[in-house]
Write a structure and sequence with these properties.
This protein is mainly alpha-helical. The protein has one domain. It has six helices and no strands. The chain is globular.
Length: about 120
């Protein structure tokens, strides 16, 4: 919550984007694996997290920390809706994402480079 709130101080739209995706992630785990919100552990084995086989707060936090806009670290794929929202955010907040943005996501980096002023 701290990470989301911190993002929200500077950019509410980005915070809400992450919030919606994380909520969808948690609902999926509740429906498919029976894991309630209060049952999500702080950490699990790093190997399982890296293989996307276990849910943990650390895995969610790392996705945010790494500027994973599409939340691929949480098994989401890139969607047209996300692309559209990203472009809207780039244009609305001129300096939100620029050449200095640190991200491991090659697709995101490409979009940033193509749309940087």
């Amino acid at each position: 919550m701290f990470l989301l709130e911190s993002i929200g101080i500077y950019n509410r739209d980005l915070m809400l984007h992450y919030y919606r995706k994380i909520k969808k992630f948690m609902i999926w785990h509740k429906n498919k694996k029976g894991i309630d919100l209060q049952d999500i552990p702080e950490t699990v084995d790093c190997k399982l997290e890296n293989q996307k086989k276990a849910i943990s707060w650390r895995r969610i936090a790392r996705a945010i920390e790494k500027n994973d806009f599409y939340l691929k670290r949480l098994s989401f794929g890139q969607t047209k809706t996300d692309d559209k929202q990203l472009l809207e955010l780039i244009h609305k907040w001129d300096n939100l994402l620029d050449q200095s943005t640190v991200t491991d996501d090659k697709t995101l980096q490409k979009i940033i480079e193509e749309n940087s002023v």
